[in-house]
Specification:
198 residues, Ribosomal Protein S5, domain 2, 4-stranded mixed sheet, 10 strands, 30% strand, globular
């Protein structure tokens, strides 16, 4: 099917290269310079069965914000490019994922309309070198470029578990949404196209 995309994003703050294959096997090679973010993105690829390569260099001497944001934006753009016109996909997906005491639920619509409703409860300010406030920001940035509507809730006592369960739930819901619908040949919208107002 060839649902694959390469995106390069270069600014004065970051340089990001993303290669994404929606029909992969879950292979990931991630190097952002932010260790726990690499872990979350690798988990996303593994559970979505996307092949994903990300190489990023950013101004980490300032802080992690620009790198995390720009990687998410580039990944979102790669997702949208790889999905193309979205003909024949399920379009909607949902998943609930536990991780020990934590539980996350994600529901997505690959509609072409970007919207994020997030309720993620963290107790601390950081997980490793990743500020917890950047977890929802990364998800919002991904959604904005991917053209995906995302509703995601996650809570638990351990911040590592909460964040990882959230990314796994997102992965499983995206895997379902981009999967083929054997009964549909065209675009899954009564308007005949996806995007604003579809």
């Amino acid at each position: 099917m060839g649902r694959r995309a390469e995106v390069r994003r270069v600014t004065r703050e970051t340089e990001v290269a993303v290669t994404l294959d929606l029909d992969g096997s879950g292979m990931a090679r991630i190097a952002t310079g932010v260790g726990f973010y690499d872990h979350l993105l690798s988990s996303l690829a593994h559970h979505a069965l996307f092949d994903l390569e990300i190489e990023a260099r950013g101004d980490l001497e300032v802080d992690e914000h620009h790198t995390v944001e720009d990687v998410a934006l580039a990944l979102g753009r790669a997702f949208r490019d790889a999905l193309g016109d979205a003909a024949g996909i399920q379009r909607f997906g949902e998943a609930r994922v536990p991780m020990d005491e934590a539980l996350a639920e994600a529901v997505v619509d690959c509609s072409g309309r970007a919207y994020a409703v997030l309720a993620i409860a963290f107790r601390g300010e950081r997980i490793g070198s990743l500020p917890t406030q950047l977890v929802p920001h990364a998800l919002e940035s991904f959604v904005r470029e991917a053209g995906v509507t995302l509703h995601l809730r996650a809570e638990g006592a351990n911040d590592h578990h909460v964040a990882e369960a959230a990314f796994k739930a997102l992965a499983r819901s995206l895997r379902a949404a981009v999967g083929p619908d054997p009964r549909r040949a065209g675009v899954p919208s009564t308007k005949g196209r996806l995007g604003e107002g579809a």
